[in-house]
Design a protein that fits this description.
Layout: E1 2-13, E2 16-27, E3 31-35, H1 42-50, E4 57-62, E5 65-66, H2 71-76, E6 79-82, H3 94-101, H4 132-145, E7 150-154, H5 162-179, E8 182-186, H6 190-196, E9 199-204, E10 207-213, H7 214-219, H8 221-228
Parallel strand pairs: 3-8, 3-9, 6-7, 7-8
Antiparallel strand pairs: 1-2, 1-4, 4-5, 9-10
Helix pairs in contact: 3-4, 4-5
Bound molecules: adenosine-5'-triphosphate (ATP) and magnesium ion.
Length: 237
């Protein structure tokens, strides 16, 4: 059963529609990766899914309930975005960032380190002094404290080396496998993203031009490449 569902969603800024008639669903324990060139509408899709941006038409639901505009309320319902900006406090330590993210009544801040043990020796370091990969681990740790049912991850790998991405993406996979989180992952590293995903979609100018099982897309990189340039393909349902 899908946890996150977008049906016929259009969204944008001002007069222009950026995302058009988008259908997308993510089941519990599933990782779906949203691919596409710069400006295709990937971040806009995530913002709409999390309630930061209203859908102009269509519907976004989590576990069958419509997603409203109250992002804090949506977060309490388990809908959590890891934005591409990372949204950390650079002047504070790792521990302080986790304190601030921990919810009253939720698991303690230190529980976030269970899945991200590389952060443990860094808890007293200021975030500004962390590497990009370590900062992304902290962003994931913060998201985990919100006990997500649906995790939307926007370019975890922004500015990171492929080695750092190879360390981070399996952690994302494990959240789906071990905690049954529904993950929607936006990535520029196509092969690495498809390598941990169950399914993939390619957006171009706000429309899905290709979608399929991750293994099928990995096996037909040529189709993925064409989709980046707007070409549709027989694999598109
Ligand atoms: N706040 C905004 N106001 C107006 N236009 C915007 C705004 N944010 C994004 N856009 C435009 O919407 C389009 C889609 O942007 P979006 O950020 O969703 O793309 P993206 O697929 O995430 O790209 P990237 O890979 O570069 O992050 C772009 O043309 C962008 O210029
Ligand atoms: Mg983006």
């Amino acid at each position: 059963m899908s946890v996150l569902e977008l049906r016929g969603v259009s969204a944008g800024y001002g007069a222009a529609a950026v995302v058009r008639d988008l259908d997308l669903s993510v089941a519990a324990g599933e990782v779906v990766t949203l691919l596409g060139p710069n400006g295709a509408g990937k971040t806009t899709t995530l913002k709409t899914a999390v309630g930061l941006l209203p859908a102009r038409s269509g519907e976004v639901t989590v576990l069958g309930r419509p997603v409203g505009r109250r992002v804090d309320r949506n977060a309490r319902a388990g809908l959590v975005l890891v934005p591409d900006s990372r949204a950390l406090f650079p002047g504070l330590t790792v521990r302080e960032n986790l304190w601030l993210a921990a919810r009253r009544g939720g698991p303690g801040w230190a529980s976030a380190l269970d899945r991200l043990p590389r952060l443990a020796p860094l808890v007293d370091r200021r975030v500004a002094l962390l590497s990009g990969g370590e900062q992304q681990m902290l962003a994931l740790a913060k998201a985990l404290l919100a006990q997500p049912r649906v995790l939307l991850v926007d370019e975890l790998s922004m500015g990171l080396s492929p080695v750092a991405v190879q360390e981070l993406l399996p952690i994302v996979r494990s959240l789906a496998d071990d905690l049954s989180v529904a993950v929607l992952l936006v990535e520029q590293h196509v092969d690495l993203a498809l390598g941990i995903a169950d399914r993939g979609l390619v957006l171009h100018h706000g429309r899905v031009v290709l979608e399929g099982a991750a293994a099928d897309l990995l096996a037909d990189r040529e189709a993925v490449h064409r989709a980046y340039f707007g070409g549709t393909d027989a694999a598109h349902a």
